[in-house]
């Protein structure tokens, strides 16, 4: 995509927002317009670089096995609800308290949580524990999709107009979409893509605003911004063009001509335009990545780590930001396997080990590249899960705990309100399904503000943000 195309898309976005401002009246429109111009200029000024990296945990991560009570009082309550407590005890999904000692977290500044709760990470997460201690990682407690603040009484009310809540709660597909876009399945744009819309004028090539290393996802789709997809190895190529077609260079040339030539047929012309853009972009990305090597290892001692491989290509793309003409980028990677209705203890341990290794390797790569304070990584998932065990696993929930990591993170402490360890308290809606106390809109807005989105533009990223008391949760410097 050429600079002219990016400017045209930015012009359309400006005109669209100008129309929205005009609804408020001519005087306020003029004032808000002047403010918007100043803030847009600040967003685009200079040569600074910032990137957001979303790690989506597909299936609904069991946050209760990711961040667990460690103090004896709350641990005993937790163990009584989940069952077990001595490791892989039949009928229970609680690890022995002794196994959590090495990953117990002590927040800075003497922070005190609900009921003097002390948390420990999963035993496999020793690297994230070190990043927490170094002030480079922060957990965000009990965050989830909300339309507006909601109490348990309001949740139980039959008046859904007065007490709105996200549609189709506890459904994988719908809640994945709601987390990524603020809308259930069928949404066409996500909050990562909407930030990409605003960043278009900052990048010389707007095609590289939003990059996915994990296939198609609504999170990175904007109203104008496109998702550019890569594999763990780099740019995706058309094999018949990249290599000789059936051993024939002439065949490859003919295929390129067929795929990129102009046409009077509107559908064929659009297909060929998209094909040409993809072919051209592959050449740009491949050339930009070719000289990039990293000393940081993303390969575990044994086996493979798919998330680490995705994050490795993201690190390489960040290293190639100058030849790609990028100053603001949003990335997405993912791992799956979190829908653990059974065999939770052993499977969750494997997943937590992979997540811990991959996140740590990526952070070390950003240090190597000198951009640790310019890159912020955060987790998201379909939903949390029940505190109550179903015997050998847990069931679909709502609110969950998540991690934010990077050199600009105010780490070493917790954000949000720690939920009670209970299945009857007013901060859960049954079986220990957390009623979120922090909305995804607030999570997104805090990240967007650091990214450079102005206060007046936050509603275009987080459509429900005006209903909440704050748009900045404080976890970013």
UniProtKB/TrEMBL annotation:
Domain of life of the native organism: Bacteria
Pfam families with a match to the protein in the record: DUF1501
PANTHER family: BLL7424 PROTEIN, DUF1501 DOMAIN-CONTAINING PROTEIN
Name of this chain's protein: DUF1501 domain-containing protein
Lineage: Bacteria, Pseudomonadati, Pseudomonadota, Alphaproteobacteria, Sphingomonadales
């Amino acid at each position: 995509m050429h600079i002219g195309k990016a400017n045209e898309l930015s012009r359309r976005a400006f005109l669209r927002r100008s129309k929205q401002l005009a609804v408020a009246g001519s005087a306020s429109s003029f004032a808000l317009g002047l403010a918007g111009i100043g803030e847009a200029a600040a967003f685009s000024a200079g040569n600074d670089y910032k990137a957001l990296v979303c790690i989506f945990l597909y299936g609904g991560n069991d946050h209760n096995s990711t961040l667990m009570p460690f103090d004896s009082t709350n641990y005993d309550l937790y163990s009584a609800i989940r069952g077990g407590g001595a490791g892989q005890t039949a009928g229970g999904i609680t690890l022995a308290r002794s196994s959590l000692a090495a990953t117990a977290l002590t927040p800075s500044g003497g922070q005190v949580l609900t009921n003097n709760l002390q948390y420990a990470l999963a035993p496999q997460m020793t690297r994230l524990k070190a990043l927490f201690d170094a002030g480079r990682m922060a957990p965000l407690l009990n965050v989830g999709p909300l339309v507006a603040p909601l109490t348990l009484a309001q949740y139980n009310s039959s008046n859904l107009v007065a007490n709105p809540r996200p549609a189709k709660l506890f459904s994988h597909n719908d809640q994945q979409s709601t987390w990524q876009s603020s809308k259930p399945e069928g949404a066409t744009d996500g909050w990562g893509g909407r930030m990409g819309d605003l960043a278009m004028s900052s990048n010389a090539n707007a095609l590289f605003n939003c990059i996915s290393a994990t296939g198609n996802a609504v999170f990175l789709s904007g109203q104008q911004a496109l998702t550019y997809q890569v594999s763990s190895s780099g740019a995706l190529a058309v094999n018949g063009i990249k290599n000789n077609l059936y051993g024939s260079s002439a065949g490859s040339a003919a295929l390129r001509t067929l795929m990129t030539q102009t046409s009077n047929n509107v559908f064929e012309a659009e297909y060929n335009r998209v094909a040409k853009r993809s072919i051209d972009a592959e050449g740009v990305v491949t050339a930009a990545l070719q000289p990039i090597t990293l000393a940081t290892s993303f390969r575990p001692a044994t086996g493979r780590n798919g998330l680490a491989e995705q994050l490795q290509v993201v690190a390489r793309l960040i290293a190639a930001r100058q030849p790609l003409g990028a100053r603001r980028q949003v990335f997405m990677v993912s791992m799956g396997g979190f829908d653990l209705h059974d065999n939770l203890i052993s499977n969750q341990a494997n997943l937590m080990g992979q997540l811990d290794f991959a996140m740590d390797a990526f952070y070390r790569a950003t240090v190597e590249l000198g951009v640790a304070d310019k890159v912020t990584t955060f987790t998201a998932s379909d939903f949390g899960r029940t505190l109550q065990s179903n015997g050998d696993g847990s069931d679909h929930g709502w609110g969950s705990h998540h991690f934010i990591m990077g050199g600009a993170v105010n780490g070493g402490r917790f954000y949000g309100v720690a939920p009670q360890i209970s299945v009857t308290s007013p901060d859960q809606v049954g079986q220990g399904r957390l009623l979120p106390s922090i909305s995804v809109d607030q999570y997104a807005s805090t990240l967007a503000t650091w990214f450079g989105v102005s206060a007046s533009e936050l509603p275009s990223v987080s459509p429900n943000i005006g209903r909440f008391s704050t748009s900045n949760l404080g976890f970013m410097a």
